[in-house]
Prior knowledge:
Layout: E1 3-7, E2 13-17, E3 25-26, E4 33-34, H1 45-51, E5 68-70, E6 77-79, H2 97-102
Antiparallel strand pairs: 1-2, 3-4, 5-6
Amino acid sequence: METFFVACPSGHQVPVSINHSDAPVQCPQCDGMLESGMPRTSLSDTGAMRILEASELAPPAPKSATASRPCPICRTPVSEASAACAHCQTYLASPPDFLRDLA
């Protein structure tokens, strides 16, 4: 059986079995109680979140958070990234440079 040593509050070296590393240990010389502090070999996601004190996760952002504007013709909401209205096919983007030069 594999063991490791932990110092009690009085400084005595107390042998602790790896199988009992989570349980409190009593020092045989001074009868003081101590935690062994043996790190666990694996940590679950839930355990990590508890360590970080993040018991509740932030809710996901709504999917409809994209910016939109109303079409000037049919008033249908149109994404800011769209160049034309999907409902009435009205061109919404600014005219290309070559058309501005013709005016």
